[in-house]
Design brief:
Blueprint: H1 2-13, H2 20-24, H3 32-74, H4 76-88, H5 92-97, H6 105-110, E1 130-141, E2 144-153, E3 156-170, E4 173-178, E5 183-191, E6 195-198, E7 201-204, H7 205-208, E8 221-226, E9 229-234, E10 240-241, E11 245-249, E12 255-261, E13 263-264, H8 266-283, E14 303-314, E15 321-323, E16 326-343, E17 350-367, E18 373-379
Parallel strand pairs: 5-12
Antiparallel strand pairs: 1-2, 2-3, 3-4, 5-8, 6-7, 6-9, 9-11, 10-13, 14-16, 15-16, 16-17, 17-18
Length: 382
């Protein structure tokens, strides 16, 4: 009975708390729905704010990235840097193809450069190292953008300004060209030689001059060069040598005059000495008082008996000096010796003369187109 009563009381008191129907019928607390809704709205607002901030940051990053890409690839400074990078790598042909680099006859005339200015040095073999390139200035002047750079050209510090202008578009990016060509020129005169080298690249003035082998050796030859650039010009041949001249081309469309005076090599001087000695020895074979074409002779007022005998008692010590585009032998002392019998017209007496004859000679030396030397020796009349 007790147990039955307990069960019945439980049934009357309601269903057990764990039953599903009892759970569904449990009343909700007031305001719970409202608080959850507010929390959802706040979370949504925070999410939207975060998305907005990220969007702004993304747009900012894209803007910064776009500026960086423009500066690195499509700006006037980037165009100049590309030109200098080509020179640094020795890519002379590619550098010459950049817009505004090559010069036609009209541009040469506008820059006061000869229309016959040679392009022979616009090649890899004539380029010297270019490094430490840095853009230090950019200024817009109307349609022109001035780009200033510093660099190290074969050990020489330099600074150059380039004028750049827009040259249409590449898609949505601007294209550029040099408003004034960065090329300049070297006007070279070589004295005492026709062959020379520029940064180790060997040339002959007769190759460069428009007149070829008929060119006046004292008329400068004009050659285009890249700017900026360092150019070492020297002569090292069998007949002539020079210590070299360094030229820094740092100003576009400017002509740099170079007058290179060479000096004779010891080998050349020795050859001239030998030739002069042989010439005087041949003069001494002439059995006359005045050897023909020779710088020495003997004068008498009486009658010569027999044939005079000449010999060279002292050869000249030859020196070779520059003479315009060629070479010369300055006044040099030498001594010949004569043995001759002379009969006096006054009393008929015979005198045996054995006498040293001092004389002075000079000479001119011309280097012929085939590389040989023509030496002309004469008596110094001064």
């Amino acid at each position: 009975m007790h147990e039955a009563q307990t069960t019945q009381d439980a049934a009357v008191g309601g269903e057990p708390s764990g039953a599903p129907d009892a759970a569904r019928r449990t009343p909700r607390r007031p305001g719970r729905r409202t608080r959850r809704s507010e929390r959802g709205r706040r979370r949504l607002a925070l999410d939207l704010t975060a998305i907005g901030i990220l969007s702004v940051l993304a747009l900012g990053a894209l803007g910064v990235g776009g500026v960086a890409v423009y500066r690195a690839l499509y700006s006037p400074a980037a165009f100049v840097e590309r030109y200098l990078a080509l020179l640094s790598s020795g890519s002379a042909a590619d550098a010459l193809l950049l817009p505004g680099v090559a010069m036609d006859s009209g541009e040469l005339a506008a820059a006061d450069l000869p229309s016959t200015t040679s392009e022979v040095l616009l090649r890899r073999a004539a380029l010297a190292p270019l490094s430490e390139v840095s853009v230090i200035g950019e200024r817009v002047r109307g349609d022109i953008t001035e780009i200033t750079v510093t660099y190290l050209a074969n050990g020489h510090r330099g600074r150059t300004q380039f004028d750049v202008e827009q040259d249409g578009w590449v898609g949505v990016a601007p294209a550029w060209r040099f408003a004034h060509s960065p090329l300049s020129a070297i006007d070279l005169t070589v004295r005492g030689a026709t062959r020379f080298s520029v940064n180790g690249f060997e040339l002959d003035t007769r190759q460069v001059a428009p007149e070829g082998t008929d060119a006046d050796p004292l008329v400068p030859v004009s050659m285009l060069v890249f700017s900026p650039g360092a150019y070492s010009i020297s002569v090292d041949t069998a007949t002539a040598t020079s210590p070299g001249v360094a030229v820094l081309s740092d100003a576009p469309q400017k002509a740099v005059p170079v007058d290179l005076q060479t000096q004779p090599t010891q080998e050349f001087v020795d050859v001239v000495q030998e030739r002069v000695d042989d010439f005087l020895a041949s003069c001494a074979t002439q059995q006359v008082l005045q050897p023909t074409g020779c710088p020495f002779g003997y004068f008498v007022r009486n009658r010569v008996e027999g044939a005079p005998q000449w010999s060279i008692a002292q050869n000249p010590e030859i020196e070779v000096v520059p003479d315009g585009a060629q070479w010369a032998i300055p006044s040099t002392r030498a001594v010949a010796h004569i043995d001759v019998d002379i009969r006096s017209l006054y009393d008929g007496r015979l005198n045996e003369v054995s006498e040293d004859v001092e004389f002075f000679l000079t000479g001119s030396i011309t280097i012929l187109p085939d590389g040989t030397a023509s030496i002309q020796v004469s008596a110094d009349q001064d």
